[in-house]
């Protein structure tokens, strides 16, 4: 509304109106059209009745203010038939057309790497928590989606209709999205929908991004991509003009024009305004009234001053109703007359050969993909060969014939000799050349360089000792029972769990886990023999089982770790019959499975919260959001309570048989039992060779909490609280403050110079910073442009070391990030980085270049990383490690190692690095034990509370999402916090970021922080917000002074059985009690109002004459008949002290 009011002051306040035209988000009115014909051809009616936009604003320029139109010819239009949103676009293409490599269906991020369109739909942009639907799609219908329904992340398998046609140098694309996809049955007059329309351009000239290209969109201003405050809006009116911006140039000269069409049967009066602001000339603006007869179309010219060469013009255009109450069209952008070369030049046949390769030194493998599909005539191709030579040209691997082409593509996994040995013996440079020749195509000899250098850290044994980490106990075996800390597991003859007794609760029902099969049309329940234990030790146990279901026979290996994780390797034996279905059925006791968490390949979209209610199938895996996974398999599922629970997990569905009609996993409620079902074989299958399926199981809690865990804090602690704490972290929150050259992804200081860390260690001991040391250290940085940043970060590090107490310093590292310009990355990039192919060999990265979300911590990476972690500790610089980005992430690995595999339809199903991440964290903790240290490491696990990963960590960090000023009660449900953020399932300190914007409405920010205080205090989370969260620390300090965290103060959580306070309304709460004194904190989760709280005084140790006060204000709180009465605003909290007078 603020934009509307100012822009329509078209007289005295005209300057304000013109400025707002450039900052307001685009807006377009749409009216009803006939259903579109989706054929890639624009019909006259489709153009006549749709609102049209000219050009996409380029995000290539790193400038503030109005963005410039990308110089390719492009236009798009939007319309509706009332039940569907129609989007059409016409975009210029380069001489080689468009890239469309990802096949139809869920292509994940690979769809984004093609020429693609990107849409964001917000069904109600004015909602308190707007829902968001996001899709990227290429010309083949490959797509990547994310979605959020209010505050909940959801899966979205889009139902949309599209057609794209490339002809005459243009890509015509049409798509129709049913409004029912977004919960809208039919548009109503005045209804608004947020809509972001983007075009991702690939294969451009070097000046315009090269192969990566350019992202462009409707909006003219930079901002958060999913921000609903700045998203363009389309508004439906039953009676509205159709506005189309026709173009900007004619004959190389400025000629801005728009058309106005009145589709109604009545005359229409409109107000229009436009502004042109040339960078070097006088601005031109005009406001006028336009009257359209019924059915009339008028073209509006918008002349500008002369535009000179290389000059840019900022143009804005507005169309409203005569009274200014309805905005029919609003847009702004910059543009110019230049016609730069934007597309890559046309390729010859030899340039149309796409050679992709990945070298995996861990396995001595190379995967080659030779794509000749861009060549029209392949009949002349006789054979394709590959060889490898060393730097001197000596043959290392002789010519090897590759498989024949299939649809123009040849793929080959090549076993190589150990190149490390070749490097050591005869090729000390470690430089090699791959040569691939397509015999029959002129000049089709492709040469690519790669490296296999040697490094001192390779194959080290750091952190591999067979040691038991603190708070775990040795595994014990008694009969068929396996005992781990806090849990007792009773095994059955299948090698699975008959019962789990966790933290004094039985978790399974109906005889425990079972396997159900239909074999040759007959149903069976698998039957096993005697379980045989192969190995028993304090840190590991292995057992073998054999079972049968009719003619189907199988063997299972159950391998236990001392944290209670059991890896279950099931091998189905070949037989002549047919398996119609095979299911793993896990019957859970619902009273111990009230919470639910499911994770796929990514974060911030995983479900956490209450287990679904109802009867029958209450959930299936198709409801889980995902990023790149090619099926509906969910990698991690946990069901439990605030402590006890059962998790089931795996890298992917390798070995399964999938069926589009059957979900991979289901939750079914029936007759008082909650069944978690894994549909391992969902379609008739012949087992013609041994078939292996790997699953993991782990019951929670995996270890006990530290006895004094409540007397801990993370960064941002006020000084007056420190004396009451046993642990207060000193956090070095980036790679820069420990000497790195990139923000997050350097494991070592610049030039691998650990003298900085040694100095840090010295300062921690002496409490003295040597004079001029900062200057001397900073002289060594090569990137002088960042010197101010480097100096600030190192100076901060030096002074924090001076004040750091023992065992307090934690260094930031990124478990999924690494520099790409360093020698180790050049050798191990395909083993370490999870993308299908790396491009840094042909395009060497700049100094300090890095990838932040790409590492899969395979063994060689762990060898490398733990070497540097050890140096961090042994120099005395730090005590513990923080890992960013431990979420599951798809790895398109072609090496043939366990993990990614080729599905029946030819797609590559990625692995997700779950077991690799677990081993990185375990190995680091064991390394600390080897050094005589007690590990206290942190995993940043926002939205991914995965038991086997968090198990060997000691601290969790959640809530790096929902930045803004939304109340915390709207960010996370109580059930989400207890399922994901609480930390008690893993015995870990529960840290949360709880981000709040730093600028804007100060009152809104303060209120947001207060809502966070109530939520966080009542769930016993540790907030890193620090001094800004004054209400949190004000109350937390009073709790600490009361004795919170000490043996003589009992803490009661509202979710406990037998919680000794009855509180009205929708709240969270916590009670602290000691003899003759108690503190009760109550936080509103509803609409506020009047509340009562009746404590069981006898149970909490209160008797006699009592008084109650508001702990923050000191004012009395009404207490009558042992019942407290108080008022709360919506989402507010109160801390009440009740004590004996």
Give an account of the 3D structure.
By secondary structure, this protein is mainly β. The chain has five domains: 2-336, Sandwich (Immunoglobulin-like), CATH 2.60.40.1190; 352-451, Immunoglobulin-like, CATH 2.60.40; 485-700, Beta-galactosidase, Chain A, domain 5; 709-1035, TIM Barrel (Alpha-Beta Barrel), CATH 3.20.20; 1048-1140, Golgi alpha-mannosidase II (Immunoglobulin-like). It is 14% helix and 36% strand. It is globular, with a radius of gyration of 32 Å. The two termini are 56 Å apart. Residues 1-17 have low confidence and may be disordered.
Structural class, by secondary structure, is: mainly beta
**Can you tell me the CATH topology of the largest domain?**
Immunoglobulin-like
Which class of the largest domain in CATH terms?
Mainly Beta
Number of domains: 5
Question: Can you tell me the CATH architecture of the largest domain?
Answer: Sandwich
What separation lies between the terminal Cα atoms? 56 Å
Number of helices: 17
Q: If you compute it from the alpha carbons, what radius of gyration comes out, rounded to the nearest whole angstrom? A: 32 Å
β-strand percent reads 35-45%
Q: For the residues shown, what is the average pLDDT?
A: 93
Looking at the structure, what is the overall shape?
globular
Helix content: 10-25%
Question: Can you give me a brief rundown of this structure?
Answer:
The chain is mainly beta and 1141 residues long. The chain is built from 17 helices and 72 strands.
